[in-house]
TrEMBL record:
This is alpha-L-fucosidase. The keyword Hydrolase applies. SUPFAM superfamilies: (Trans)glycosidases (SSF51445). InterPro entries: FUC_metazoa-typ (IPR016286), GH (IPR017853), Glyco_hydro_29 (IPR000933), Glyco_hydro_29_N (IPR057739). Alpha-L-fucosidase is responsible for hydrolyzing the alpha-1,6-linked fucose joined to the reducing-end N-acetylglucosamine of the carbohydrate moieties of glycoproteins. Belongs to the glycosyl hydrolase 29 family.
Amino acid sequence: MKRVFLTLCLIGAVTINVLAQYKPTADNLAQRQKFQDMKFGLFIHWGIYSILGDGEWVMHNKNIPYDSYKRLAAFFNPQEFNAKEWVAFAKQAGMKYITITSRHHDGFSMFGTKMSPYNIVDATPYHKDPLMELAKECEKEGIELHFYYSLLDWGRPDYAFGSPIVNGKPAKGDWDSYINFMKAQLTELITKYPGVKGIWFDGDWERTKVDWRYNEIYGLIHKLNPAILIGNNHHVAVKDGEDFQMFEKDLPGNNTTGFAPDQSIGTLPLETCETINNSWGFNITDRSFKSSKQIIHYLVGDAGRNANFLLNIGPMPNGKIQPEFTDTLAIVGAWIKKNGESIYGTRGSYIPPQPWGVLTVKAKTVYAHITSPQGEGYIFIPKLKEKVSKAVLLSNGSAVKYKQQPEGVFIYTTGLGMDGVDTIVKLTVE
Ligand code: GLC
């Protein structure tokens, strides 16, 4: 009898283990494909910190006591915010999705949550919910919406920022209460806001020894909507239950930031997030704006590495986007309008990045993006096994000379009229 019981327990344990392994649904897998097709997204960091014009870490960096910082809520009144303008701006730039901060490390909720009075509807003179307006507008305009959600909270007593971690929990605070709070907010975000397609977690790295209970949190999200894509900016290998892998301020495979020394590239869809200047949240002194060429090269570099590019802007506290950003992104948008077929719906990493640039591939078409011509009068595409039947310049359809050998293809660029940003040669393969 005892033995039978033990065996049953064992079978039970094994079953639970098997069940615990995340299996994405067909809808989720389809959403991953769609996500990869979109390629270009707009990241938005916006919160009460925007008032101080010093980035989203200002409370922490300037040692502002939480109770003093909280006063900012009373000054936050973005009368100029217009969801239509933001969505139109993203669309015009060629972006297909928006990822916006719903709650950042300062703990302030930029949506009408019932779980804490510290939110834009209840604690500011604005009294409206910009994320609801944005969600509705995105849905109307066919732009997908992801919510950034901070795991880290500098102010909540149950999170107890700064507390030592003992046995997977902060010694002070109330970890159960904090986890439940997050689950309740995530439930609101997923069930009340129309069309949400992704949750973007951040802040895990602040507590590496705590039990974040991702099985519960991710499980809840996928139970509420199995198609929602979960990503986590934890800077380590993908964890069970996640649907895409992200890289902060780096193309996959590069580690110029040093954030992710051990982050290998997995098999899930990939996304790089990067700032348009050097700040996430609005920063009034940061003038290190990336040029349209740098942004296009980033986008192309990501596409060639099979990743999406999520480009961040920090809108101003009045709800407007500063002209330096709109000007640059108008140029990027015009570029994509002409060259979008070589970006949207393509896949990358067909061959590793080359000194001259990258390849993107869609069915029988291969696009060679020559972003850094080496001045040799040709480029060499190694390991292209399919027979090339045609090569033209994407910009005007004119024929491009090439020579195919077993080890690869030479594309001759002399006299092509190179484009200063990206010369795209379109190859048809059999
Ligand atoms: C980092 C920053 C955070 C920002 C995020 C975006 O984690 O700490 O403020 O939101 O990067 O990738």
